[in-house]
Amino acid sequence: MHNFLLLGGDLRQLYLSRILTQNGFSVTVHYDKEDSSFSIDKAIKSSKIILCPIPFTKDKLNLFSVHKMDDLGIGNLLSLLTPDHILFGGAIPDDVKQYAKENQIKCFDYMDMEEITVKNTIATAEGAIAEALIESPGCLHRNRCLVTGFGRCARTLALKLKGLDASVTITDRKDTQLTLASSMGFDTVALSDLSQTIGEYSFIFNTIPALVLNEDLIRLTKPEVTIIDIASAPGGVDFDFCKTQNIRAKLCSGLPGIYAPETSGEILFEAIVKCLAKRSGI
Predict the structure, then answer these.
(1) Fewer CB within 10 Å, N- or C-terminus of the chain?
(2) CA distance 106 to 100
(3) What region holds the Dipicolinate synthase subunit A N-terminal domain (predicted)?
(4) For strand 203-206 and strand 144-148, is the pairing parallel, antiparallel, or unpaired?
């Protein structure tokens, strides 16, 4: 049996630790400051599998944690790892991956695992809808919704919105994506033509990790529009301009960890166990 060490993160880490424990694994969790006797040096030396959070980091210096913790420096973590360790995390920076490669440390990024990214779109979509309903005084039923992009998350989100009887339009730069969206029964508009229709939507969901909703487009939206951005930070919306116009706009990152931490923990557990079984056996 492997010894697991879970560092930082959000509620997903706690649920993942419980699932690992329930399945007979030895688990150490460093999630907050409650255990003043905890030593990251000792914990890493006594563990084989190091489970870092999603995202791996937000400031490029420390592991991400919802709790302010002083001992999660990435440089210190890497210096303690050896070729006997296996490192997991979400959206691991390229320099960390390169260090692991150069030092023969096995490193696996959750975001490179198809089963995780696909399953996580469900929690992300449901979380985005929850945020929209919280932020808006209206309901989605029979309201016009715009989804920017048509990748994995956008497709799941569009289907969930359609299931709530919202009127859904997809916008994208690529004709192939618009054709796919149309074949699935969605209205479509080319991103280059969005200025002609953007004033028709009560809800806008952005999934494109680049500035899409700029000042010019935001000026054309309904004053009462609700904008939910689920793209990677910093998102694709000019939030500063939205504030000046009193437009409801919110960047919503880490939705699976907020709205479905238990399900997300189960998804991570299944992927981790499968990954380890393929490579070394458990």
Answers:
(1) N
(2) 7
(3) 4-111
(4) parallel
Distance separating alpha carbons of residues 99 and 187, to the nearest angstrom: 46
Under 8 Å between Cβ of 203 and 226 = yes
pLDDT along the chain (282 residues), means of 10: 91 97 96 82 96 96 93 96 97 97 97 95 98 97 98 97 98 98 98 98 97 98 97 95 98 95 97 89 48
Name the nearest CA neighbour of 164 among 201, 126, 202, 119.
Answer: 126
HSE (side-chain half, CA atoms, 13 Å) at 50:
28
Q: Please give the order of strands across the beta sheet that includes 248-251.
A: 187-190, 167-172, 144-148, 203-206, 226-229, 248-251
CB 56 within 8 A of CB 93: yes
Query: Residues with Cβ < 8 Å from 83, sequence gap 6 or more?
Result: 103, 104, 105
- Residue 238 phi/psi, 5° resolution? -80, 85
In the chain, the domains with their CATH numbers are 3-112+260-279 (3.40.50.720), 118-251 (3.40.50.720)
- This prediction has a pTM of 0.91
As a whole number of angstroms, the distance between CA 13 and CA 10 comes to 6
- At residue 167, φ and ψ (nearest 5 deg) are -90, 110
Query: Which among 148, 116, 161, 150 has a CA at the least distance from the CA of 257?
Result: 116
Q: In which order are the strands placed within the sheet that holds 3-7?
A: 26-30, 3-7, 49-51, 86-89, 106-109
Q: What's the confidence (pLDDT) of residue 41?
A: 95
